[in-house]
Amino acid sequence: MSKSIKDNTILGMGFAAFNAFMLAAMSLSAKWLGDYFDAIEVTFWRNSASLILLFVWFMVIKNHDFFKTERPKAHIVRGAIGTMGIVLGMYTVSVLSLAETTVLLFTSPLFTLLLSIIFLKEAVGVFRVGAIIVGFIGVAIIALPGILDSAHPFPMLGLAAGIGWGFCSGSIDAILRWMGKTENTYTTTFYFMLFGTIACGLYWPFSATPIDSIDKSSALTVMGIIALLGFTGTTALLAKTQSYRLGEASLIAPIMYTMLIWSVAFDYIFWGRTPTWNVILGAIIIVGANLFIMYREHAKNSKIKAIEGVQG
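The structure corresponding to this sequence follows.
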């Protein structure tokens, strides 16, 4: 490996770690904002703040090509599923700890592989199918003690919403594999934010929390949280894009799981919460299943490239 490639790989891994931190910080901001607004409203602020920052960035770099698209219908589908996922995620983070929410989000790669099998007709061996099953056993371990313990029940609606967030996120990853052949990453992100802002904005007339109902003494705090939510979300996107541009996916993707470390830290710092044994065990199983899937996919792709190299 040449020095320049090695340096780029290290820099890419650094961007990936920064992305994980920013995503955890975004969840923290969403949890704080959940004290003032419901899940749809928080999603509106998350999307609109990020949309403004992304638009300003496009203007600064003077690249208007990011507004061009060849597949508007695909963006609508991506926007609808993505927005639904964010709403579910914002609800989940409001009723569960950041660590629990993050672990449930980690089911996303399991759903991506499952949907790729069903809709993209990808050939998957028995080992990766087994990893999907094992991953969902991890989810069951997280919920089971709370189901059996009536004195300390697990918020089942929060569990369902968290799994739904993982499903929507996994669906988006599968859709982006399909859209990525023609659409730029920034283009898909911009139209996703635009769709989410408009869709959630239509909810405001029926909102239980009118904007003018926020106490004036709290207004500055709310504005600060909204700005932080938009900044962390947009920065995470840019860091993720840079990480995959500079480094190999097989090295970059596993770093995403450091998000759990930050989520646990935030839970402890701000609420004095530590993860229970079943959440820790469930996290180990889910992350382990995802890493095994990554390993098998990397091995498969390396084998295909080797065969193509021999044939070439």
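Residues 65 and 218 are 40 Å apart (CA to CA).
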